[in-house]
Design brief:
mainly alpha, globular
Length: about 350
C-alpha cells in the first residue's frame, strides 16, 4: 500500500480514539435505553464517518486500497451484525436491566478492539514472514463457512452458559441481583460480586471467539494492517446503538447467517488461490509459484460481498412477511427479555453449572 502521510494515520487513530472515549463517557454518565431516533442518528453518524474515511482512502491510496477498506469494512460490519444475535441472547439470559445494556455493550466493544488489535498485530507479523499461513487461513474460513451454514441454532441457545462461568460462580462470592452497573456490591456487610461480572466475562469470551473468525476473513481481502485495524474499528463503532435499532428487525434476518457462510467461503477460496500464487512450500509444485492460480481483484470481492448481503436481506424480509417468522413473542423475548427487574433468573445459574463451553454463531 502506498505510504500514507504520518499525520493522516496518527490523526485517524486520535479522532477515532476520542470518539470512542466520548461514547464511553456518555454511557457511563447517562445510562439509559436510547430511543429509536437516537439510535438511528448515531448509527447514521458512524456509517457516514466510515464512508468519509473510505473517500479519504480513495484519495490518498487510490481505488485498489480504497476498495479493500470498503470490502473489509462491509465484511466486518456484517459479521458484527450477526454477532448481535448472541449479545441479545446474553442480555436476555442474564436479565441485564435495559438501562445498563449500553454500558455492557460498550465494555464488550472495548474488549473486542483490544483482542482484535492483538490478533491483527500477530496476523500481520505471521503473514509477512510465512506466506503459507494463507493456506491455513483459507482452510479455516472454509470450515467456518460450513459450520455457519449447518448451524441449527443450538449454539445461540447456550451462548450465555459455560464451565468458566460456572467456576466463577462457585469460587467467587456472588449476589443474586444487580446493583446498578456495579461489579461489586455489599450484601449483609460483606463485599461480593454482582452478576454484571459474569456478563462481562461472557461478552469477553464471545469477543475472543469472534476475533478468531473475523481477522482471517479480512486478511483475505487486504494484507494492510492499517486497513484491517481501521475497518474493524469502524465496524465496531456504533454497534451498541445498532443493537437497540435492529433488535426487532434482527429476528427477521433469517438468511443472514447463510449469506455470511457464502462470504466466508468465498474469502477462504480467495485466500487459498492467493497462497497458491505466492507458494513457497517445497512439497507443492516444487516450491514454485503456481502461475495459473488466479488472483481475485478487489472490485470482484466487493461486488460479491455486497450482492450476497443485499440478496440475503431482501430474501429474509420477504420470507418474514410471507410466513410471519418474527412473531411478537419472539421479538419481545429477544429484545426485551432483559427486563429492568434486578434479579437474575434462578434457572440460569443452574444451567450455567451444567453447560458446556459453546461458541458463537459461526
Amino acid at each position: 500500500m502506498p505510504a500514507l502521510p504520518v499525520a493522516f494515520e496518527v490523526g485517524t487513530f486520535i479522532v477515532l480514539g476520542l470518539i470512542l472515549l466520548f461514547d464511553l463517557l456518555l454511557v457511563v454518565k447517562r445510562p439509559h435505553e436510547p430511543s429509536m431516533k437516537e439510535a438511528g442518528l448515531w448509527v447514521a453518524f458512524y456509517v457516514g464517518l466510515a464512508l468519509v474515511f473510505a473517500a479519504l482512502m480513495f484519495v490518498f491510496t487510490g481505488p485498489e486500497y480504497g476498495g479493500q477498506f470498503v470490502a473489509g469494512w462491509i465484511t466486518e460490519y456484517s459479521l458484527s451484525i450477526d454477532n448481535l444475535f448472541v449479545f441479545i441472547i446474553i442480555m436476555a439470559r442474564f436479565s441485564v436491566p435495559r438501562k445498563y445494556q449500553q454500558e455492557v455493550l460498550m465494555v464488550g466493544i472495548i474488549i473486542a478492539l483490544v483482542l482484535r488489535g492483538i490478533f491483527i498485530a500477530l496476523g500481520a507479523a505471521v503473514i509477512e514472514n510465512f506466506s503459507w499461513i494463507f493456506f491455513i487461513f483459507g482452510a479455516f474460513l472454509l470450515y467456518t463457512a460450513y459450520k455457519q451454514a449447518t448451524d441449527g441454532g443450538e449454539d445461540e441457545a447456550d451462548a450465555g452458559d459455560n464451565k468458566l462461568i460456572a467456576k466463577l460462580r462457585s469460587v467467587l462470592p456472588m449476589s443474586d441481583s444487580y446493583d446498578g452497573n456495579k461489579i461489586r456490591t455489599v450484601v449483609d456487610g460483606k463485599k461480593v460480586f454482582t452478576p454484571m461480572l459474569i456478563v462481562f466475562v461472557t461478552i469477553g469470551l464471545t469477543d475472543l471467539l469472534f476475533a478468531v473468525d473475523s481477522i482471517p476473513a479480512i486478511f483475505g481481502l487486504t494484507q494492510s494492517a492499517f486497513i484491517v485495524f481501521t475497518a474493524n474499528i469502524f465496524a465496531l463503532m456504533g454497534l451498541r446503538q445498532l443493537y437497540f435499532l435492529l433488535g426487532g428487525l434482527m429476528t427477521r434476518l433469517i438468511y443472514l447467517k447463510h449469506a455470511l457462510s457464502v462470504i466466508l467461503a468465498f474469502i477462504g477460496i480467495k485466500l487459498i488461490l492467493h497462497a497458491m500464487h505466492v507458494n513457497e512450500l517445497p512439497f507443492i509444485n516444487g516450491g514454485e509459484h503456481i502461475e495459473w492460480a488466479p488472483e481475485i481483484p478487489t472490485f470482484v470481492s466487493l461486488a460479491v460481498i455486497v450482492a450476497t448481503i443485499v440478496v440475503a436481506v431482501i430474501a429474509s424480509l420477504i420470507r418474514s412477511r410471507v410466513t410471519g417468522t418474527a412473531t411478537d413473542e419472539t421479538t419481545n423475548e429477544a429484545t426485551h427479555g432483559a427486563s429492568d427487574a434486578p434479579a437474575v433468573d434462578d434457572g440460569l445459574a443452574e444451567a450455567a453449572d451444567e453447560a458446556e463451553v459453546q461458541g458463537p454463531r459461526r
